[in-house]
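Case study 2.
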Amino acid sequence: MPTAEIRSFGQLFGHVANAQFGTCTSAKGEEDPNQGTNNEEKTSRTDIIKALSDSFAYCDSAPEALTGASANELVTFRRNQAARGYALANNIAHNSEMYGIATANLRLKGQVPPSTERSMQRR
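Prediction:
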């Protein structure tokens, strides 16, 4: 069960934005356009949504540019070397994990998560 020690809903999505910028920077071999910005510190809904949207927009070109050969190239990922494809796969896994955490927050507020709502509509 979530406790007061976990990130707030806004901080969770600020964290996702930070992580996406970091991961896609590694995969693209570029300087982090988010460097020096901690999106977890943003408090307005508008700012959090913009940060998250910007991180998705920045990441969009990374998998599009991936080829069989470039997927195996080593890049600096966090403090290690990893295959470019691994970094992008890790981004998907991390986002899935964060979605799972978000669903717990939604349910605690009496809301139905989007994936559950969609599956209920098909019944």
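The chain has one domain: 9-112.
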